[in-house]
Specification:
The chain has 281 residues and is mainly alpha-helical. It contains 14 helices and no strands. 74% of the residues lie in helices and 0% in strands. Helix 5 packs parallel to helix 7 and helix 7 runs antiparallel to helix 8.
């Protein structure tokens, strides 16, 4: 117990001393070279103190200095993952990715590799909230999240990666729907139908599928493709009969003297045979 208290006292004294140092120099310790006189442990503690003060940018710099001053050491490894965390918390996603990827390149077998991969995925994922953004980020987030799920299935981050993967996948479907509705509103029915088809074929597990099927009923009726419209309505009724989308489609079809049923031989009738009837041919 005495030894434990002595060690705790040592770290407390170090923290207080560095806090006082950082409080003055906060401001200029990057240029002063003050970190070069410290041990890697002391620099690491300085980085933690800066994080607690909400100075993520300074913390990230401090953690990366360990790697520069004490390369290939255990503290450099710990500093690198903390730098990735600090960059990410600061919203500096590009540098967060760089630090996380560097950790994976240098220390792929270490215990924090799963967390580095998770941070790498988050650096993409946290930039895709706006459906109007470049969807390249969404694809990169999906790839990085898939790596967490497949390479580190037993890690504490796998479950959250699965949730975020599903949300990112849904996000791509939402983008297709947004573009499809844009074309539909302007009477460009063929372009709209192509977007809604992508959702039905490639994103059928997302929440956008019922609307996509209804929009196909709308667009195909507008194009005079009654068989495709009826078949889309049949798939919608078989899977989402209680939804408002099906009720709207049913009203559109019956208003034209049509019924929701699989008609003809088209891409939707193939889906109907496979998914509804179980005829995999």
């Amino acid at each position: 117990m005495a030894r434990g208290r002595g060690r705790a006292g040592m770290w407390l004294a170090m923290a207080l001393g560095l806090s006082a140092c950082g409080g003055n120099a906060g401001d200029g310790f990057r240029e002063s070279g003050a970190l070069e006189s410290l041990t890697p442990e002391q620099i690491f503690v300085q980085g933690e103190l800066l994080l607690e003060e909400g100075r993520e940018d300074d913390a990230a710099f401090t953690f990366t200095e360990i790697e520069r001053l004490y390369p290939y050491s255990g503290w450099a490894r710990r500093g690198l993952i903390m730098a990735a965390f600090a960059f990410h918390r600061d919203g500096d996603y590009e540098n967060a990715r760089g630090a996380a990827q560097r950790y994976l390149d240098f220390y792929p077998a270490e215990e924090d590799a799963a967390y580095a991969q998770y941070l790498l995925a988050l650096s993409y994922y946290d930039q895709i909230d706006d459906v109007g953004r470049d969807q390249g980020l969404t694809f990169q987030a999906l790839q990085a999240l898939r790596t967490v799920i497949e390479v580190y299935p037993d890690s504490p981050y796998a479950a959250d990666a699965i949730v975020k993967f599903d949300l990112a996948f849904d996000h791509l479907a939402a983008k297709e729907m947004e573009i499809g509705r844009f074309y539909l509103a302007r009477g460009n029915y063929t372009a709209a139908a192509n977007r809604f088809r992508v959702v039905v074929e490639d994103f059928q597990t997302t929440r956008h599928t019922p609307e996509a099927l209804h929009r196909l009923v709308e667009t195909y009726l507008a194009l005079g493709l009654d068989a495709e419209a009826q078949t889309a309505g049949a798939i919608l009724g078989a899977n989402y009969q209680a939804s408002d989308w099906y009720r709207d489609s049913y009203a559109l079809l019956t208003g034209r003297g049509l019924r929701p049923e699989s008609v003809g031989d088209n891409w939707l009738s193939a889906i109907y045979r496979q998914v509804i009837r179980g005829e995999w041919i």
